[in-house]
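Q: Structure tokens for this one, please.
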Amino acid sequence: MNYKEADKFLKEPRNKASKKLQNHTYLVRRDENTIAALFHETDIITFHSNGSIVLNSGRWRTRATKDRINTYQDQVYLSQKNSIWYVGKGAWWEDGFNGKGIFQDGIKISARGKVTGGLPVSAEKKVLDLKKKINKYIDGYIKAFFNQEVPEPSEGDCWFCCMRTQEGVNMGDSTGPNNTHILEHFREKYYVPSLLVNAIKHTPVCKFTEGVLYYAWTEKNFSEIGEWYQKIASRDFRRSLRAYLYSRFEIAK
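A: Here is the predicted structure, written as tokens:
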């Protein structure tokens, strides 16, 4: 799809400002020269009348987001390997990938196919190193939690993790993808209680795991938590923390 096709889709058979494409996905006219493909709350593709497009994941580097971007525009193709989204003109083939670079939110593709705003392929090592740091931090976090070394969230937590803006977004998330304060937590092995709360809000856990949190932070007692429940909680914590931290640093699942 391009701007002309999107414009025609909104105008025929009846002119509308918005039309559904598929589940949670709509084509929306933003102004007289701009049309967006909206997935949930993110304009994942912005079509401009000059033929250029802008791509955005909204930090949700999920398979569904990637598939929607690939489905509703044909100027580039997003492929994933080792949690990195690559931008190119074709999918992964047996003889390798015809890649142009690494995806970043706000990446722009001109009408002639020029890609600007992405990262060079050489940046993949930095991304993979960061992924290792995240997974190591998660391992340490879960171990510390079950050693009762992660107290109940309080005002003494990292301010960037616990304080929120008027819109309800925690201060750290409002600063963009750099998240230098989280990198400091990795370096210091500081397992911030509010960070786990933020992760669970991002990716909810099951009722069993909610019960584990209750006993850990309200009753401050693990004696009533069986080994089976702890295994479930460990799995859920890992999933939520990974999804949250990957999204903060714009790493795909």
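A few notes: The chain has two domains: 3-119, 123-248. The beta strands are 18-22, 25-31, 34-39, 42-48, 53-55, 77-81, 84-88, 99-102, 107-109, 115-116.
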